[in-house]
């Protein structure tokens, strides 16, 4: 199948239009014509090879929503014209204990990423900055028509990546929860933690985001550079979700956890993290990580969002403005997720 998208050809050049081939749909595949695709900071890390091992040409994009335009003969969950979403992975072994438990990101064979990856046949996987995608229905999600479709797109990565750890660590009423960084992930973490009934403190480096954080559900906002404001919260948090994309001091947040509190990293800066042993020995604290979320939980999150009317705060952009959008993400200057209107690709 012919596809048109935007690709990076190396780690320093801007993304440019690119035509490529996708596989012919297999019996269990759906073909999705893409209406919108979010811009995740992981796209930028990978385009610029900040984690190492990037594969080019790279068509990024893993916050994909659109309409089903073709289905294979064995497809049961979709029909032509249905809304559909594809997130960060498009395949996994399906047979290991983690896959069977619906924990596909932790597949023992290694999941197949939506882009910057090779599938199990060795073919390159291309992502959602494109007019279409072919995906097995097991890795495709149903989308409610109730919500603004463009604002649903970021749920496929930013949404599930924050929903999953907040659920896993039982965030809810009578819990004091911190969210670090008010970006694409952070603002979804804030919305979910608030929706689950926790007392939420948003940490930010950006004074310009204080009012927004309160409107999005923060009970308190702390400017993380203000050491006196940070010290007031020492030893009080049950859970902290760190959504920051760049290196920063983890110990400053660990010291805010109460007895048996947990800090979970979802942000993926390109440098190792330094932790003082005293930061975790004190108060028997845990330092953890979490990666996206499994297929059943992703569908659960999408259904929860439809029920509670939760979507991402977005700035719609056209695909020719992609490289400028990247620069603004790097300056933490997006409120709070860029989403590409894919009709601009046809234009
Ligand atoms: P983003 O929209 O750029 O948000 C990152 C936020 O971090 C910024 O808005 C900013 O918030 C804060 N920040 C940026 N630079 C900082 C610095 N030098 N010091 C302190 N704070 C800083 O990025 P995103 O799309 O939410 O992604 C966040 C991270 O999560 C990325 O590293 C991404 O690769 C990773 N990620 C991980 C998973 C997973 O499965 N674990 C999934 C998706 C993404 P303030 O302005 O409020 O300070
Ligand atoms: Zn992402
Ligand atoms: Zn597996």
What does this molecule look like?
The chain has 347 residues and is an alpha/beta fold. Helix content is 24%, strand content 27%. It has helices at 41-47, 97-100, 149-152, 158-168, 184-195, 210-215, 227-231, 251-254, 277-281, 295-308, 322-330, 343-346, and strands spanning 2-7, 16-21, 29-38, 64-71, 83-86, 89-91, 112-113, 117-118, 124-125, 132-136, 140-142, 176-180, 199-204, 220-223, 237-242, 257-265, 286-289, 314-317, 337-341. Strands 3, 4, 5, 10, 11, 18 and 19 form a 7-stranded mixed beta sheet that branches. A 6-stranded parallel beta sheet has the order 14-13-12-15-16-17. The protein has a two-stranded antiparallel sheet with strand order 1-2. α11 (322-330) links the parallel β18 and β19. The chain is globular and about 60 Å long. It binds NADP nicotinamide-adenine-dinucleotide phosphate and zinc ion (ZN) (2 copies). The site of one zinc ion has 8 residues, from α2. Residues 40-42, 45, 157-158, 161, 181-186, 204-206, 209, 243-246, 248, 266-269, 290-292, 329, 332 line the site of NADP nicotinamide-adenine-dinucleotide phosphate.
């Amino acid at each position: 199948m012919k596809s048109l998208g935007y690709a990076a050809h190396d780690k320093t050049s801007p993304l440019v239009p690119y035509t490529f081939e996708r596989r012919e749909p297999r019996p269990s595949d759906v073909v999705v014509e893409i209406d919108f695709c979010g811009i995740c900071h992981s796209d930028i890390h990978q385009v610029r090879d900040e984690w190492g091992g990037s594969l080019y040409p790279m068509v990024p994009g893993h916050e994909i929503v659109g309409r089903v335009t073709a289905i294979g003969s064995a497809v049961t969950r979709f029909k032509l014209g249905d809304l559909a979403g594809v997130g960060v992975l498009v395949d996994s072994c399906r047979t290991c204990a983690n896959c069977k438990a619906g924990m596909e990101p932790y597949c023992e064979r290694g999941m197949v990423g939506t882009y910057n990856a090779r599938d199990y046949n060795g073919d390159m996987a291309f992502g959602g900055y494109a007019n279409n995608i072919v995906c097995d229905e097991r890795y495709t999600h149903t989308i409610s028509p109730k919500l603004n479709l463009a604002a649903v797109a970021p749920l496929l990565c930013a949404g599930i990546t924050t929903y999953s750890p907040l659920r896993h660590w039982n965030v809810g009423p009578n819990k004091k929860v911190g969210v670090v960084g008010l970006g694409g992930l952070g603002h979804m973490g804030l919305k979910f933690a608030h929706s689950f009934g926790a007392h939420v403190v948003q940490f930010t480096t950006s004074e310009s985001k204080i009012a927004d954080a309160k409107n999005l559900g923060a009970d308190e906002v702390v400017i993380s550079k203000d050491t006196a404001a940070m010290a007031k919260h020492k030893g009080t948090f049950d859970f902290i979700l760190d959504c920051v994309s760049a290196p920063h001091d983890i110990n400053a947040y660990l010291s805010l956890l109460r007895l048996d509190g947990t800090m979970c990293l979802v942000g993926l800066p390109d440098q190792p993290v330094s932790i003082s042993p005293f930061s975790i020995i004190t108060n028997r604290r845990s330092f953890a990580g979490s990666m996206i979320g499994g297929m059943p939980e992703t569908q659960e999150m999408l259904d929860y969002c439809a029920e509670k009317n939760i979507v991402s705060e977005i700035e719609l952009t056209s695909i020719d403005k992609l490289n400028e959008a990247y620069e603004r993400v790097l300056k933490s200057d997006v409120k709070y997720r860029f989403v590409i209107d894919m009709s601009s690709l046809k234009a």
